[in-house]
Each structure stands twice: as structure tokens, then as C-alpha cells.
Amino acid sequence: MVDLLWGRDGKRSRGPRPVLTVAQIVEAAVAMADAEGLPAVTMQRLAERFGYTAMSLYRYVPKRTDLVTLMIDTALGTAPPLDASAGWKPALRTWATRLHAVFGEHPWLATATMQARPIGPKELSWLERAAAALAGTGLTGPQRVDAALVVLGHVRAQVQAAAGIAAEEGAALAATLNELLREHAGDYPALIEASAFGPAAHDGFAFGLDCILDGIEARTAVDPLS
Amino acid sequence: MVDLLWGRDGKRSRGPRPVLTVAQIVEAAVAMADAEGLPAVTMQRLAERFGYTAMSLYRYVPKRTDLVTLMIDTALGTAPPLDASAGWKPALRTWATRLHAVFGEHPWLATATMQARPIGPKELSWLERAAAALAGTGLTGPQRVDAALVVLGHVRAQVQAAAGIAAEEGAALAATLNELLREHAGDYPALIEASAFGPAAHDGFAFGLDCILDGIEARTAVDPLS
DNA sequence: CCCAAACTGTTTATGGCGTAAGCAAAACTG
DNA sequence: CAGTTTTGCTTACGCCATAAACAGTTTGGG
Question: What is the rounded CA–CA span in Å between residue B214 and residue B206?
Fold first, then answer.
């Protein structure tokens, strides 16, 4: 399976040519997950899309979880190169924004990437770009990776939260939560005062990202233009 | 269902007394998830534990997803009060550390809390404590909540990562990833240099938390002892 | 006090899921 | 042209959540 993920295709020999390719299947699965969510991608429904039965897909992919792993790497895509000329800070901000956009296009990604699973080459390329951007900061190697992972965690959390509220049922949930909060106002004075779930005209993603980047900067020995 | 979560019990009248309580069921489910993971908690296996059939549980809980919602609120528990005498920063650090510990006791929580679902009173109490700790910082209300959510996202991400590596199969995954990284060394120079997946004797949780707290501090008008 | 209403836990059944095993036909290897 | 390999399909299994109908128990209203 790791071979599939990391491109080692294996040899081709006897027997009928496979009509499909793994790439085709994975792309169709990604499209399906984008449109209907990850749980809607069942082997049966995916195979239907090609006019085949569920079992035929198992000639290409060993298990459904492996399919999901492949979907993650495909949907993430290779990380774009970063312009480091203005320093690591805008570079990392760009990185986070682009990743945020990718997660936004594939809302199921944020939940799917939170499982224990083999990491693919494209996913790893994102981490590589971020670590590279932090090269001249005086942070130690593991610290650079940790810093990238903090930003990554923030991106995922924000996408997840946004997706939850955006879901048709999410808005209703937020509304009832607001009611409940007001009913139990005495138990949550700080949240009431913060009018936490009001018509929030703010950008939680940017605020958190700024916090994290400033915090990273405070731990670097060199200035952000380094 | 929200009634169940927020404690509105409803009246008791005719018919035999229920032998079980919702609380009993939820506690058993939490214990099961702690021991075997959330997917292992099926209605059948949970009912078996009480010597009942799966369907009997539906007299207490409308759907399995609702059971999970109840499990989350129960496992989180009410947030402990914070000692703010030393300022918001150590208070928030304590908050994050305790939450981290709770997530650590219930590894399934980190994934389960990432879904769109009604938030329970105990979960909300955690947010309340953090928002309260940030009261005197000069941050706006929504900013205080955003700051708390950034820390929360970090806690979740770290727990998730730690759980992935701790899983018996996770160690093997990390090892093969290391091999692959070395095989493709040319594509990932920064990660190689960072020896990202070496015998990391560092604490990613603390590093990220420090970054975030420093970043929050940079956005406060008042000093951390406020 | 009695009985109908309400509520219990049960059985039975449905439709979905992932996937193991076996099978005919296809296509490459010698 | 064999023989072997590999394909895509059929069949089948066990598990899942949960709908529907049912029999037994308790209790409130008359």
C-alpha cells in the first residue's frame, strides 16, 4: 500500500489490461467526497460511477482506508514553492493561506487527515516547504517542524469549525446554542460578555495565525527577514 | 436530544421504571471507547455489557451520534476553575495542560470533537474558563474566544499526533516514513536537515503552546498580570 | 378499585456496509 | 498454440444502525 502511495507502481505483465487506473479511481472518489462528504464515498457507489461492481475496485486498492489515504494525498496536491525574499513570516503566512484554501475546497480533508495513517509524498511536500521557509531563523530542526505543525493544526481547526457552521444544519445548531447560552447566562458570564456566538464579524483564522506567527518570531534568534 | 445534553430531564409518569439511566449507558460507552476506541462502541456491544439487546438502548438515546455527543460532554467533564492571581498567561497555560490531560485520557475525544454537533454544557464550561481568564487583557470579546479556540486547536492537534504515534501500528508507520524520507532525500532537504522524524527528544506541545501564548500576549494592550 | 393509557425491553426485519472466496474470460509468455 | 496469470464479476458472510410491531408492567383517572 505504501508502494501505491509513494508511486512504486510495480511491473506490468500477463492478464487483461486493467481498464481503470488507481489515479482515475482516486480522482473520482475525491470528486465524490467534495460533493457529498467522505462517508458518502462507499465502494459500491464509487464503483457504480464506472459501471462496475464494488469488488472490482479491490483489484486496484486493497482497502477502503487505503483509498482514503490516497485521496488525501491527491486532494492536497504538491505544495507550491514559496517566495522567501520577504522573509519567513510572509512566506509562512502564504503557506498557511494556500493550505487553508485547499482544505476549503475539500472540507472532508480536515477530518480525514486527523487519523493515524501513512503520510504521502504530496502531504510531506507541504511540511517540507514550511520547514524550508524557517531555515534561517535560528530555530533547531525539530523546532522548525513543530512550528510548521502548529500552523497546520490551526489551519485544520479553523477549516473544521467553518465547515461545521456552514453545513445547513450547522447554522441551526449555532442558533440553539445561542439560545441555550442565554438560558444559562449565569453559568457562562465571560462568554455572554464576549457575545461569543453573536453575528461575529471577525476573522478567527487570521487572528490565530497572527498570534502563532508572532509567537514563533519571539522564539527566533534572528529577525524575520533573515 | 439537546434536552438530554443540557439536562432537561422531562417528566416521569406511567409505565415500568427504566432499569438503566442515560448516565450509566454513557459512562459505559466512555469506558469502552477509552479501552477499544470509538468505532468499537457499537450499540450491540454496548448493550451486551448490560445484558440487553441493542434496541433497548434506543429507549434512552435516539441515535448513535447522539450517544457520542453525550460521551464527549461526559468525558470532558466540567472545566476546573483557574487561579488568575498570577495573570492570564499561566492561567491559560494551566487550562491547556489540563485539557491536554483530559484528551490524553480519552484519545478518541480529539477526533470526535471535530464534527459538527451540538456543544454540551461541560464542553462550553471549558471555553468559559478560558474566555474568563482573558478578561482583563484588552482583547475584544470575539478575540478572547478566538484566542481560546487557537489554544484548543493546538491541544487537539497535539493529542491526535501523539495518539497516532503511540498506536502500536503508529510506530511502524513512523519507521517506514523515515525510510521513505531517506529514499527521497532529494525532495525533502529541509526535513532531512531537520531530521524531522529522528528520535525527537523534544516537546512539541509545550513549544507550540509557548508560541501561541506569546503571540496572544503581543496582541494584548495590557501586561499579562493585568 | 379497575382499566386503559403509557412505557418498558424484546423480537423480527431491512438495507447498507466492507470484504473474503471462487470463477469465467482475457491476454501475455513461452 | 498452450499455459499461466490477472482481470472483473458473482456470491456470500458478518456486522452495523435502526424501523416496526409486540407483549409485559406500571400507574393515573374514573
Answer: 12
Residue A184 CB in 7 A reach of strand C: no
Binning pLDDT at 50, 70 and 90, where does residue B222 land? low
In total, the C-beta contacts within 8 angstroms joining chain A to chain B are 215
Q: Does A20 touch chain B (CB under 8 A)?
A: no
Asked if B100 has any chain A CB less than 8 Å from its own CB, the reply is no
Q: Express each pLDDT in B152-202 by its tens digit.
A: 999 999 999 988 888 878 888 888 998 999 999 999 999 998 875 555 567
CB contact under 8 A, B111 and A116: no
Nearest CA in chain A to B201: A142
Low-confidence stretches of chain A (pLDDT < 50) are none
